[in-house]
Specification:
Elements: H1 15-20, H2 26-38, H3 40-56, H4 67-84, H5 100-113, H6 118-132, H7 141-154, E1 161-162, H8 166-172, E2 192-201, E3 204-213, E4 216-224, E5 232-235, E6 238-245, E7 248-254, H9 258-271
Antiparallel strand pairs: 1-2, 2-3, 3-4, 4-7, 5-6, 6-7
Helix pairs in contact: 2-3, 4-5, 4-6, 4-7
Length: about 270
């Protein structure tokens, strides 16, 4: 993949960079990792890219952009997604104390992105993120959860199995995850099951269930964990609630207000296996 040309193996030249940057969804991450394991040329190229990343991560090489800029960009992308994806309402941009010039530049950028197809806007946003982020930076868990939530809205990839039938969603995960995700029907509580999908959090494939409350999307991520990290966050305009149950970690992410999101947590926890 050196020089941007297709390799004889036929692998997409951009896929190794995307794998290294954590930009692939769970299915394509597994596919790419399996290919690298049996392709010496791609394995060597991945090692070269890792070495390059390490060199770029050295002190004095990269410029660290203000943290609030990333928050503003994610909020602007969510707003752009809301304008092009019916039925999805994004959170308002987070307020910060950054100088007004940042807000003015961001508004100009959002205006330009709205004039082009959503795919090009997303590509432009990813390019900007590459330019302003140190290559060794990996988002913390709340950051990964918010990124997974926003990515599902921006890429129109909310579900892999779009259905409100829990008896269809649960068996769909069989063989795709190393655990059996509990799927709970909460329609009578005002939380409608939309479907499920695979995602990639903390360097592992996780299950995600998607619910809706009015026009608010709730991503419920889950994976096996015996640790004890139940907590709550507010990050970039989104609320995050985490809890531990039956050997699984659960993390609900949404722009829904925290009171109703807590109702969702309580209702799901009540009906899920203990």
């Amino acid at each position: 993949m050196t020089g941007g040309h297709d390799r004889p193996c036929g692998e997409d030249p951009a896929s190794l960079n995307a794998l290294l940057d954590g930009e692939l969804d769970a299915v394509n991450s597994l596919r790419c990792e399996a290919h690298v394991a049996r392709c010496p040329a791609c394995a060597a190229e991945l090692d070269r890219l890792r070495a390059l990343r390490e060199r770029l991560a050295r002190a004095g090489v990269a410029w660290r952009a203000p943290p609030a800029l990333r928050a503003r960009i994610l909020a602007a992308l969510a707003e752009e997604a809301a304008s092009t994806a019916p039925g999805v309402r994004a959170a308002p941009p987070a307020r910060t104390r950054e100088p007004n010039r940042w807000a003015a530049r961001l508004r100009d950028a959002v205006g330009r992105w709205r004039a082009v197809p959503a795919g090009l806007a997303l590509a432009a946003s990813l390019a900007l993120a590459v330019l302003i982020t140190r290559p060794d930076e990996r988002p913390d868990l709340p950051g990964q959860l918010v990124s997974g939530h926003v990515r599902s809205l921006l890429a129109n990839h909310l579900t892999d199995v779009p259905t409100s039938d829990q008896h269809t969603v649960k068996p769909w995960f069989s063989g795709k995850t190393d655990f059996s995700p509990p799927v709970v029907d909460l329609d009578d509580r005002g939380f409608t099951l939309v479907g499920g999908r695979l995602d990639y959090i903390e360097n592992r494939v996780v299950a995600a269930l998607i619910y809706k409350r009015r026009q608010h999307v709730i991503n419920l991520f889950m994976w096996p964990s015996e640790g004890s990290r139940p907590t709550a966050f507010a990050r970039e305009g989104y609320n995050i609630l985490g809890w531990q149950q039956a050997g699984l970690a659960f993390w609900a992410v949404s722009d829904l207000n925290v009171v109703e999101l807590k109702e969702f947590q309580d209702d799901f926890a009540e009906r899920a296996p203990h």
